[in-house]
């Protein structure tokens, strides 16, 4: 057995797109172009508005915050919930109190096949 870290201290700061108080810890890249990471947002943290390079699944594992797509409205999100943006879709996420999310990015992601939709 091997033990690994993906906590905030081993991550790198996210500074692009006017992001603040945000860190990403790399977890894995698969042979097919899929990247997995963990985003740590401190209180008042934000990953600024930008287009998704590829489809992105944002899975909140602790805390709460908000997400948005190309519309201006911020949608509340909390642990156990996920947001999905398609390639090219503008998006942003943030929190007042702190939030941790696993992020899976890649072509061919299809969360509709596995997860029930959240009713908002």
Strand count, sense and barrel status of the largest sheet are: 8 strands, antiparallel
- What proportion of the residues form beta strands (DSSP E)? over 45%
Order of helices and strands: EEEEEEEE
CATH superfamily: Jelly Rolls
- CATH top level is Mainly Beta
Please tell me the overall pLDDT. Answer: 93
Number of domains: 1
Distinct helical segment count: 0
Would you summarize the structure shown here?
This protein has no helices and eight strands. The chain is an all-beta fold and about 120 residues long.
Description:
The chain has 120 residues and is mainly β. The chain has one domain (8-113): Jelly Rolls, CATH 2.60.120.10. Helix content is 0%, strand content 53%. It has strands spanning 12-13, 20-29, 34-51, 56-68, 75-78, 82-85, 90-94, 99-106. Strands 1, 2, 3, 4, 5, 6, 7 and 8 form an eight-stranded antiparallel beta sheet that branches. Strand 1 and strand 2 (20-29) form a beta hairpin. The protein is globular and about 45 Å long. 26% of the residues are buried. The mean pLDDT is 93. InterPro entries: RmlC-like_jellyroll, RmlC_Cupin_sf. This is Cupin domain-containing protein. It comes from Brevibacillus centrosporus.
């Amino acid at each position: 057995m091997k033990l690994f870290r993906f906590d905030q201290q081993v991550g790198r700061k996210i500074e692009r797109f006017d992001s603040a108080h945000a860190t990403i810890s790399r977890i894995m890249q698969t042979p097919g172009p899929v990247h997995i990471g963990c985003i740590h947002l401190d209180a008042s943290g934000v990953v600024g508005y930008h287009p998704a390079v590829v489809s992105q699944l944002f899975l909140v594992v602790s805390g709460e915050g908000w997400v948005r797509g190309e519309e201006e409205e911020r949608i509340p999100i909390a642990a156990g919930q996920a947001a999905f943006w398609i390639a090219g879709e503008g998006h942003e996420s943030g929190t007042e109190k702190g939030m941790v999310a696993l992020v899976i990015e890649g072509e061919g992601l299809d969360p509709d096949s596995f997860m029930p939709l959240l009713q908002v």
